[in-house]
Amino acid sequence: MEQTDKITVLFVGAGNIAFGNDNVLWNHSQRIENRLGANLQVIGIVDPSTERVTQVLEQKQSSLAAPCYQGAQHYHSVEDAKLGLAKGVLTPDLVILGSPPYYRGTEHLGRNLELQIIAAFGSSCTIFAEKPVSTARPEQSFPVVKALAASGNAVSVGYMLRYLKVVQHAVNMIKQENIRIQTIGARYTCAYSKIRKIDWWNKAKQCGPIVEQATHFADLCRYIGGEVELPTVNALALEHDEKSGTLSSMAVDESIIAEEDRIPRATTAFWKYESGALGTLTHNIALHGIRYSNEIIITGDGYQLRLVDLYTTPTLHIRSPESEAEKTYTYPHDDPFYTEFAVLLDSIEARKAGAASISKKSTNEPLEAASILSSYEDACKTYELTWRIRDASEESTMKRRQEAT
């Protein structure tokens, strides 16, 4: 197929993760527009909702990015997009897979968007997939890992906190100083009073806060500390019907959710890393308003590294053998969402620039992806860890209640 000189983008999913709203930090389309400017050509949006896609396109057509969306079409499925784009002799350089996770991450029809994308467009497109990779059990995602590896597509998963400069500063220091990590402790305290999406409160729909939300901090624990010995994972939960589980500022009517599907108010997990280090993760649903509170504390012989407020004012505090006083590092205006897309788009531009003179040795040869910090396989390992924490917390709750009867 003939391609435009511009970077062609196809959105699969027209929700807030891709196009934002007035209550969230994320808006992938905006970051891509900022990075590419006039070199961006959005060739389509795949979503079953005509109303939502119409709204998105109307907003874009009245914005400075309007030329980038000229000619963008609405498709109800990936197959429709394949057929429609073939008429215009176009194929996407980048597919943004931002649909709800229920529709992704398995081989099952209707829940296999990754496989639909590579079947429709082959290895020529780079895929950006949102987290978590699915809502199915983790073992159902392993065949998708193999399929994507065999297809040769470059894939990046949206664990954007890995790209924060304070996180990279900490990781680089650990390597340079050969710090042998002893413990990593992560805390994620959610501000819940503006969470109006009823499915978020239903673990049968979105798997609960560890799998859906604390996944970012479980991922950083793995990224910084290395692989976890999954059999060592243990967890406890504060359930919705316990005395301390009462919430006073909920924006939804939780009574419409079956009691067994209501999410815990707090979960604490601990485990052992393959290195021998210890890890802990605590997730709380506690704060009012919209600002979350979070931190990760890394300790090693002579060192303590504290990563604080990673969503708002990312800050790194370091105590080292040189001094008991902490040194503080901040990087104003650091935008990890922008950085993760800049990395991806740089690799696409490099590939397109060399396409005229350098032919690929094999149609299955992977695209250049050296700077991608979260591969699909790696993201599935984080997904597996979060499910192990959820399972362990539910098992402990069940055991405690059985012993009480």
TrEMBL record:
Pfam families hit by this protein: GFO_IDH_MocA (PF01408), ox_reductase_C (PF08635)
Annotated ranges, domain Gfo/Idh/MocA-like oxidoreductase N-terminal: 8-159
Domain Oxidoreductase putative C-terminal: 162-303
InterPro entries: Gfo/Idh/MocA-like_OxRdtase_N (IPR000683), Gfo/Idh/MocA_Oxidoreductase (IPR052515), NAD(P)-bd_dom_sf (IPR036291), OxRdtase_put_C (IPR013944)
Coiled coil: none
UniProt-recorded name of the protein: NAD(P)-binding protein
Lineage of origin: Eukaryota, Fungi, Dikarya, Ascomycota, Pezizomycotina
